[in-house]
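DOMAIN: structural biology
WANTED: fold as tokens
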Amino acid sequence: MNAPVVLRGKENYKKWDTSIRQHLSDKGLLVIIICDELDPATGGPALVQSLKVCSEAYNFILNSIDDTILLALSAHGLIHERGYPWRLFQAASSLFRRDHRFIASTITKLTQAKFSDFTSMEVFLSYFHLGRICLEEDSTSQTVSLLLLNAIEDRHGEVYRTHKYRQTLIWDDLVADLRAVDRQEKQDSKLSG
């Protein structure tokens, strides 16, 4: 399969969408991202071929999405090891189509997120990054930054207090401070372990 346009954000979403649709259409597989429930063949070689085609289409779409966006989708449980191409395509598309249900659901999840619910700082930050994508926030917008600040209060009190009293809460500064604390904690852990 030819290399697709890589989805990096809203600025190239339409080009990515066209690239994926054109590629799958050229292969006679456009139905894979149009229909959510395709019934695979019932068995034998037809089933194997059906699963192979789905797997190839899924991997093609997966490889066409920037790692930052993939990590954000994964942090929200939207990437599956053996997933359906339609679901992956819809998940990536929902970020940039202004899907009100998806946006509302994402923001609701962010209000309930706590650092302890995540396996690493990067997964945690990626979880919030998805909210920034949904709301089309730039680095000075504060909505998701405030939600992130709320989520770190218990685990990273010093960073919380530093940013809580700033007149303008800036995403990049908050993320940089959290990554610095995370690096320091990892170094301390190596030294003590």
